[in-house]
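Why do we bother with a discrete structure alphabet at all? Because it lets us treat a fold like text: something you can write down, compare, and reason about line by line. To make this less abstract, here is a complete entry for Cyclic nucleotide-binding domain-containing protein. Read it the way you would read a sentence in a foreign language you are learning: slowly, and without expecting to understand everything at once.
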Amino acid sequence: MTAATVVPLEGACDEALFGAKAVGLGEATRSGLPVPPGIALAGDVVELVAKGDQPTLATVTEATRPLTYPLAIRSSAVGEDSADASFAGQHLTLLNVTSPDGLGAAIREVWWSANSDSVISYRKRVGLFTRPSVGVVVQSLMDPEVAGVMFTQNPVNGADERVVEASWGLGEVVVAARVIPDHFRLARSGLILERSAGLKEVAIRATSAGGTVEEAVATELQGALCLNDAQLGLLGDLAARCEEIYGPGRDIEWAYADGRLYLLQCRAVTHGTSARPKPPSEGPVEVLAQVPLFLGLSEPEVAQIASLFKERRFAAGETIIKEGVGAAAFFVIRSGEAAVSVHGRPVSTLRRGDYFGEVALIDDGDRSATITASTDVVCQGLTYWEFRPLVQANAAIAWNLLQTLAKRLRSAEKS
């Protein structure tokens, strides 16, 4: 890692390092657009933080010192915002990280979101089935009165007009379709062509304790337009400026905070919190050493393999993997319990040292079972791109894996 891989947003210029979102925001910052202050982390930095590398995390934490907390942590995976693929709603954005103590966990969660089953399945479908490089954007979080999205061309019929959707509070309520947003259409000249009030019953807002909460909107505001003509005029100006810089056909996320308009994201229009579990007392090396899959390996070999794994946490009740979905990762349970079900029927319980997810990675098929966290669960995970080379390069692991699969086959034949 070098200092050039942790930079202020205006220094993010290389898309192969930082991803399109970071580079786009960097260009916007250099062009004088109203972007909240932030930093960009290259993929190798995010990878190290996800692995738990403390010196790298310390470097990142130090780089956030000029920023005002709370922070927003956003993914910027390479290829994420291309014109031929849309990862909107798939890669994670974590809002309202209130102190440096939560920075490492938030970055790790964003890394995992780009390596989830659903995202890997999507990458296969759109021809991006390569190991993702996950950059991250860290920005001061705005506390907006109103926020939303804007298209510089009508995304439904391609008309040459601006389309704005808006709601109260953070824009995630619009992106996640939690409300019927207000709908506006603007001509390029700025003339307002349409104003349609939505039904905005809830708003997402930051909390003082960190994370976000969904709040009820006052009855008199639910059907009231949340943008006035002056604000729409500034959005029209922003659309024009973004097209000057990036070209036509832009998908823009924006927010009004303290009476000022901010640009949160600008990408090409595509075609087509609960409490975290406490960390277990033992580290990944100690856990992996007791997993049958790694029996017969020396301590240095186990330690080397453990360095490839990354921690992932699931709250009680959360689905870890879902039956019928394409596979992205292999997991070993470090603490907690998880329930296994097939076709909705309970099958077994997994506990510390149990592992799952290897079959779908071997045959490149879909998940054969659903696994749900019965308690808070901490796993050590290995992605598709690390699992296969590991098995191919290590005869002991391959043999242990064959024995495990043979036992399961015998068990299935007897049932």
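What the structure line is telling us, in plain words: The chain has three domains: 3-140, 146-268, 284-414. The chain has 14 helices and 21 strands.
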